[in-house]
Structures are given as C-alpha cells and as structure tokens.
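Please decode residue identities from the backbone states below.
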C-alpha cells in the first residue's frame, strides 16, 4: 500500500502523486466508490471533468431520501464535499491515459491528465456514457426532452408523449409508454425504420401512432415546457414531452488502453463486484451493463469500494503469511495510512469526538505496515460482508 505524497491542489506541476485508489469519473457511481474507499482507510483520488448524465438532471427521481427538487448539480456538489470530508482528493481533470506499469503480481498503474501523472494501486472507471442526440428542433432537457424512462415516465401518466428514433429500442419504448398513457406517437423524422419485421407487427398491434414526417419547428409554453412539434407536412401535434432513442456512446477509451474486455454492447464487462477482466481495474455505473439509474450506480460503486478494500487491506494475515513473516507486531498496527488516520479522528462523526493528531501513528512501523497486502488465498476464503 502506498501513501499519498502530494497535495490536493494541482496546477500543472510535473509531480506524480501516489494513491491507493484512483477513481476516474465523478458521477454517482464513482463518488460512491470514492466514499467507501476513503472511509475504509484508503488514499483516494477522484478525477472528474464535470458534466456527465447525473449533472443533466433538472430534478432527482427514484433516490430514496433525496427529494425531487434537488437538481443533479446540487446532488453532485453535496457528494463532492462528502468525499473530500473523508480525505479523498478531488481533481477537476480529464484523464487522457491509463496504463499498468508494474511487471510483477501486484498491480500498479499510472493515470495521466496529459500534464500530470498519478500512480495508483487500483483504478476505478466510472466514466459513464453520452446519449446519442438527434438534430434540433428539440425542447430543453427536463422540460419536454427526457433521457431516462425509469426516471421520467411517471411524469407523463395520462399525458401526450413522443418517442424519437428508428431502432428497436425506440419502437419498444413507445410500446412501454402505453403502460403510462394512451397517447403515444413514434417519430421517425423522415428516416427509414430499422426495427425488425416482428417489431413492426408488434407495433401495428398496439395503439402507437408512427409519424414519418421530419420536424419543421417547435412551440414552447411560457414556463419553458414543450407545447407542440410542427411537421413538414404542415401539421402540428401537441406533446407534454418525450424520449429520444438514439443509442449510447460508452466512454471506454481508458478501459481499452488498460485492455479491459468489453461486451457486445461496448460496455465494460464486470463481475458482481465491479472487477473487470484486468487485475486491479474496476468499473462501475452506466459504463457497465445494468439499469442506468442512480441507486444502481451507487450500489455498484459501493460494492467496488468494498471489493477493492478487501484487495488492499493488510489484516488479518493468513497462517501462511504468519509462518513466513512471523506474528503481527504491535508496531505494525493500525495499518491505516497516517493521512487517513488524521482525517478520521478529526471528523465530527468520530466516536472519540473530533480531535487533532500528528501525522505519525505512535509506535507504528510504517515500513512493515505499508509493505504488506492481503493474499488472494485469504480473499478467496472471505464470504462475510467485511
Ligand atoms: C437527463 C437525465 C435525467 C436523469 N434522471 C435520473 C433520475 O431522476 N433518477 C435516476 O436514478 N437516474 C436518472 N438518470 C440516470 C443517471 O443520471 C445515471 O444512471 C447516473 O448518472 C450514472 O452514474 P455514473 O456515475 O455511472 O455516470 P455519470 O453520472 O454520467 O458520470 C460520469 C462522470 O465521469 C466523467 N468522466 C468521463 N470520462 C472521464 C475522464 N476520462 N476523466 C475524468 N472524468 C471523466 C464525466 O464527466 C462524468 O462527470 C438521468 C439521466 C439523464 C441523462
């Protein structure tokens, strides 16, 4: 395990900082991993360029304990403060490159902004995806243009809605919306449908109106919400809102640089704990398979945060290790890095009350504590939650 050597402020110095965990992507998934990893005693760097899908939310749905009037940016800025509060460093930066640099069994990586490099024992890719966007005219996101069926279908119960697109997903989402309303149009905008013959038959057997004309214009209400689309054939149709279905562009560039396997949908392949095909590299959230929802992203982030802690933590040592290196001495514990110890005891949530401490842990032998990592044998035998 390594100790961080730099500060949280990075202004383009060519200094390489060293972390236990580097999380790339500061949406709900990566932030959850960062929170768990930091609170489990690891030195964590969060790299986020800003934006992302959560940042697009006008209001937040489906997140228990978070009221709907909370915007995506408010949600994220609270989370950014939270992780920093527990000692994670937040870098407002875009990671352009990632590579494994060790040649032994213990993975070690470098991630780079193009200007600065950071060494890390674990990399977490939480880079999300971008939605394919149709051409204008389009209403404002959250005010007639909606990107998340499970979040926003509830808004359109008993309303007039559109779905835009020509693929299988557009046709299916149009039929799914019939669970919420009896007024659904599927807009192909002058393009040829690409859905299958079976889907065409299915569509014909559902009360969905397919409109093939391209849009010519749009009307908005005074409050900014969509009121109607105008079509090239001169007709106007009123809608409360709808869903464009033009696919997802997964941000997998770093995963490819690290040789992580992708699935047929171009998402990063992971196991149930966010482990990719490459040792030491995790992936969480929308860039992996699964429902694209904040609670799901947060759950994946939490699981990866715990899994990587189980990789990195030092105790208990296995009997084989004890045979090899002897019993654990009093001076080798606690294993928590000095910076993390200082942050934890100064935190208002600390059981002993917030207190100051020096960076050194009295009696600890940092060499012994830092040089050790749990064995695969021990991790494989662990099936309790901690
Ligand atoms: C308009 C809209 C409304 C939604 N509403 C809801 C809702 O109400 N409830 C709900 O549960 N879900 C909602 N969702 C879905 C939800 O936003 C996503 O499922 C969730 O944000 C996924 O989290 P994530 O962390 O995987 O990705 P994101 O939130 O997309 O975050 C990814 C982050 O990674 C950063 N990044 C990418 N590459 C790099 C790099 N190389 N270096 C540094 N940073 C990088 C991006 O800039 C971004 O900040 C909505 C989605 C949209 C688009």
């Amino acid at each position: 395990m390594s100790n961080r050597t730099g500060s949280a402020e990075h202004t383009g110095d060519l200094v390489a900082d060293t972390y236990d965990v580097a999380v790339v992507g500061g949406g709900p998934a990566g932030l959850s991993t960062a929170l768990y990893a930091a609170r489990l005693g690891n030195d964590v760097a969060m790299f986020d360029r800003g934006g992302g899908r959560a940042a697009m939310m006008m209001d937040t749905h489906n997140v228990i304990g978070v009221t709907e009037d909370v915007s995506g940016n408010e949600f994220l800025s609270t989370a950014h403060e939270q992780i920093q509060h527990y000692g994670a460093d937040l870098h407002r930066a875009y990671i352009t490159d990632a590579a494994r640099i060790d040649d032994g069994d213990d993975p070690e990586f470098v991630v780079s902004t193009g200007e600065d490099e950071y060494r890390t024992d674990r990399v977490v890719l939480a880079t999300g995806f971008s939605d394919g966007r149709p051409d204008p005219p389009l209403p404002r996101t959250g005010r007639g243009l909606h990107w998340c069926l499970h979040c926003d279908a509830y808004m359109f119960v008993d309303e007039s809605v559109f779905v835009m697109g020509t693929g299988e997903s557009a046709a299916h989402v149009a039929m799914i919306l019939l669970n919420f309303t009896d007024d659904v149009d599927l807009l192909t905008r002058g393009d040829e449908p690409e859905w299958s013959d079976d889907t065409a038959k299915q569509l014909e057997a559902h009360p969905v109106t397919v409109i093939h004309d391209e849009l010519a214009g749009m009307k908005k209400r005074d409050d900014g919400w969509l009121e109607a689309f105008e079509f090239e054939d001169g007709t106007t149709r009123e809608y409360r809102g709808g869903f464009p279905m033009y696919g997802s562009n997964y941000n997998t560039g770093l995963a490819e640089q690290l040789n992580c396997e992708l699935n047929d949908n171009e998402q990063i392949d992971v196991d149930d704990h966010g482990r990719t095909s490459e040792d030491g590299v995790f992936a969480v959230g929308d860039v992996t398979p699964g429902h694209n929802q904040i609670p799901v992203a947060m759950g994946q982030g939490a699981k990866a945060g715990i899994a990587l802690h189980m990789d990195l933590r030092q105790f208990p040592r296995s009997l084989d290790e004890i045979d090899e290196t002897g019993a654990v001495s009093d001076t080798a514990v606690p294993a928590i890095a000095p910076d993390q110890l200082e942050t934890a005891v100064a935190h208002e949530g600390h059981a002993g009350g917030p207190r100051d401490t020096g960076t050194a842990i009295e009696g600890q032998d940092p060499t012994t504590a830092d040089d050790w990592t749990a064995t695969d044998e021990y991790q494989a035998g662990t099936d309790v939650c901690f």
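Observation: The radius of gyration is 25 Å.
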